[in-house]
Write a structure and sequence with these properties.
- The complex is a heterodimer of chains A (141) and B (140).
- Chain A is mainly α.
- Chain A contains six helices and no strands.
- Chain A has one domain.
- In chain A, helix 2 packs across helix 3 (52-71) and helix 5 packs across helix 6.
- Chain A is globular and about 50 Å long.
- In chain B, helix 2 (25-32) packs across helix 4 (82-98).
- Chain B is globular, with a radius of gyration of 18 Å.
- Chain B is 70% helix and 0% strand.
- Chain B has one domain.
- The chains are: A mainly alpha (141), B mainly alpha (140).
- The interface between A and B is large, with 112 and 115 residues.
Chain lengths: 141, 140
């Protein structure tokens, strides 16, 4: 059943368009793909000549809620998971995105918009894994 | 110039994540909960983002240089191997566990909650472990 009381189709579409604009700016002006895990992974490699633009992109992400909150109240956030679950999740996300060369942004948005079959397969794989995980944690346990 | 563009792109990306509701892990889990009370919002985010990025990707594929004269670096890899599948499956499991992927995790660090900070520390640790394992593999 679709949860239309929690769904935010208009806001999500507008936010998605903004993400598409951000991705477009980075590729058409800097020549870089806006995959967040790839950008962060590149910082961890500590290559001095390639680190500046990555840090500034991440800084942009970091300050975005601060700037948003000057004009509007930040949307409410609900956490369903405990601290140990969040830590385990972070570890899996860090390892998995590096092995799989991308996350929701790199494969899911940038890759699919380039019509990359590799990215489409990656996206279907992580979505399926996410669906199975939520089924286990919400309906079995 | 490259730095100002990067900062601006990151800022717009982050605002997009906040407006779309994706910094709320419950909404992401709601999307993945297809057998429960399904929240389709994440699908609308993907739709909006891909429809815009489709056009810039098309332009980027045709051009060799950016409007600012820099080389356009598009990924060339097209192989579908076990690394891609296993890595993506591990990522998806972590994504489903907490409802955070890398973008929303980083974007939420300064919102005064402890969860995104824990998530990003663990995610960076996972990435460091990956680099260590890869450098060991290259050595032996």
């Amino acid at each position: 059943m679709i949860n239309w009381t929690e769904a935010t189709p208009i806001n999500s579409l507008v936010g998605g368009i903004l993400i598409g604009v951000a991705v477009s700016i980075l590729i058409l002006f800097n020549g870089k793909v806006a995959g967040i895990s790839g950008i962060l992974g590149g910082v961890i490699k500590l290559k001095a000549e390639d680190i500046g633009w990555r840090l500034l992109f991440l800084l942009g992400l970091l300050v975005s809620p601060v700037i948003y909150s000057i004009f509007f109240a930040l949307p409410k956030v609900n956490f369903e998971s405990g601290h140990w679950t969040v830590l385990t999740a972070g570890l899996l996300v860090g390892l998995g995105t590096r092995y799989g060369s991308g996350c929701t942004s790199g494969h899911g948005i940038c890759g699919i918009s380039r019509l990359s079959i590799r990215s489409l397969v990656a996206t279907m794989t992580f979505m399926l894994a996410g669906v199975v995980t939520v089924f286990i944690t919400h309906h079995l346990i | 110039m490259i730095y100002i563009i990067s900062l601006f792109s990151g800022l717009v990306f982050g605002l997009g994540l906040i407006i779309s509701g994706m910094t709320n892990p419950a909404k992401v889990i709601g999307f993945l909960d297809v057998t429960g009370f399904w929240d389709p919002s994440l699908g609308f985010v993907m739709l909006g983002a891909i429809s815009v990025a489709y056009f810039s990707s098309k332009i980027a594929k045709k051009r060799k240089l950016t409007y600012t004269g820099l080389p356009i670096l598009l990924p060339k890899a097209n192989m579908i191997d076990s690394r891609l599948i296993i890595g993506s499956a591990i990522f998806g499991t972590g994504w489903g566990l907490a409802g955070y992927c890398p973008g929303p995790g980083i974007t939420s660090i300064l919102t005064g909650k402890i969860e995104p900070i824990l998530f990003v520390i663990a995610m960076v640790s996972g990435m460091v472990i990956y680099e260590v394992l890869e450098s060991l593999k290259a050595r032996y």
